[in-house]
UniProtKB/TrEMBL annotation:
Residues 143-223 form the Adenylyltransferase AadA C-terminal domain. This is Aminoglycoside adenylyltransferase domain-containing protein. It comes from Kitasatospora cinereorecta. It comes from the Bacteria. GO terms for molecular function: nucleotidyltransferase activity. Keywords: Nucleotidyltransferase, Transferase. It holds the Pfam family AadA_C.
Amino acid sequence: MFTPYRELDALLDEFVHAVHGILGDTFVGAYLQGSFASGAGDLHSDCDFIVATTVLPARATEAELRRLHDEIPTRPGFWTKHLEGSYADTTSLRAVAGLGTPWLFCDHGHRELIWDAHCNSPHTRWILRNHGITLAGPPVTDLVDAVPPQALRESMREMLPGLMEDLRTWARFDVAWSQRYAVTTYCRALFTLHTGEVASKRDALEWARETLDPRWRPLLTQVIQDRELGWDPADPPRPGSLEAMYAFGAYAESFAS
């Protein structure tokens, strides 16, 4: 069992078999990272993967992977719409020098692969190195070097000042889910700044509620309790919660300096 969900485990088995067949001798291994690797995956999580390859997919191999990811979300079931991850060559995956290299990326539930560095970040590498679940291949620690705490902290200092503006480019703040996501993301950034490590969404919220200024406890408690509501485009934010989110964002961003 890789996850608490039999349907997801069956999908992962089929997925790894199909990917291995497409990649052939360039296939190195397949791994879970993200929420399921850190022990916090649930029905509101996506299923994050990394497939390690000797070389980045190209030409016929890339085309076959694109066809596979175009087909998977058309299958019946819940988890077929919730895969997210990248195909990473072992050279750029190994050390922090490879950070930012674009990998062939499947966004959450999307059918079209893109070249993007979304998964090639310090926090993703830290989770993969420290908690990654091996679906196939060698132990992930054979492929990924340790991420220095300073690299994690610096990435958060760079991210924090523009975080809210970045969220505005894709998140609808008339939806309650976006308010919760923003607060959670700020908490994860502050946790990393403080510890040089990475926490799951729930653990970061709990840490923030116990560690930060007590005036934020009502907001953080609301976000923790409302996570079970999941994504609902018709669910507006609670009264006053957006104002609290913006104030918390400004507070969190002040730590970047």
